[in-house]
Amino acid sequence: MENQHIIVRVATPDDIHYSKTITDEMESSAKARGTGIAKRSPAYVELKMQEGKAVIAVTDKGDWVGFCYIEAWGHDKFVANSGLIVNPAFRGHGVAKSIKKKIFELSRQKYPDSKIFGLTTGLAVMKINSELGYEPVTYSELTDDEEFWKGCRSCVNFDILTAKNRKNCLCTAMLYDPTEKLKEAEEKAMAAKAEAAAAEAEMEKMKMSVAANGRIHHERRRRRFKGNIKLYERWLRFKRFVLLNSKKEGGAAGTKKKFLFFF
């Protein structure tokens, strides 16, 4: 990686020669993690490149660095940013974050009204998604498109998903809803306007106070919200403990234990 500049861009048909390398690394990475959702062929990856529905990262010397693609489900009501993979030689340098940001922007451009979602077991991906505006949701808020869920069959945890009637699994579901984000933006704008009016009124009040006795009493309050990745981490550990132990004890048919999940 030394002395190489990384370029993150929309993939084109000229990039199809990377397809076999990409799918081989997807398979290798899935085996290393013990998961593997929606295994794809080089031909499928090439199709995404030809459609302009993929993002690729390469060096200025032509070395492959990373990849991700877009899939639309439920008559384009839902969009998934799938197949995120980074060349092991370039991991730990913010490449995944750059690719996720680019593919998110491409998804919003091509499907401005669609909900964007993802399933992941990775804390790093969860953190990136949170920064982009995704929020953890239940599986029931995702697409009900059967073709999407068929892609989970290649995952080693598919029996957990089926045992839970497709309501839960080791993956955490995250969703970006453009309609909700628009409402939040409008509410924020209204709140800012109200705050500005209140500040102006307070300024007038202080001016009167200064005129009366030469003293100013002023107090500021700031409120910030930050995505709590530690909460995601604790939730993921608890989820894995419960579901994997349930699996060992016989799954849905073999255990009488019941668990309630709150998030």
Topology:
Blueprint: E1 6-10, H1 19-33, H2 42-51, E2 54-59, E3 64-73, E4 78-86, H3 95-110, E5 115-120, H4 123-132, E6 135-137, H5 146-150, H6 158-163, E7 172-176, H7 178-213, H8 229-248, H9 251-254
Parallel strand pairs: 4-5
Antiparallel strand pairs: 1-2, 2-3, 3-4, 5-7, 6-7
Helix pairs in contact: 1-2, 3-4, 4-8
Task: Describe, in plain words, how this protein is organized in 3D.
- Helix content is 46%, strand content 17%.
- It contains nine helices and seven strands; from the N terminus they run βααβββαβαβααβααα.
- Strand 2 (54-59) and strand 3 (64-73) form a beta hairpin.
- The protein is globular.
- It has two domains: 6-176 and 226-254, Aminopeptidase (3-Layer(aba) Sandwich); 177-223, no CATH class.
- It has helices spanning 19-33, 42-51, 95-110, 123-132, 146-150, 158-163, 178-213, 229-248, 251-254; strands at 6-10, 54-59, 64-73, 78-86, 115-120, 135-137, 172-176.
- A seven-stranded mixed sheet has the order 1-2-3-4-5-7-6, with helices on both faces.
- The protein has 263 residues and is of the alpha+beta class.
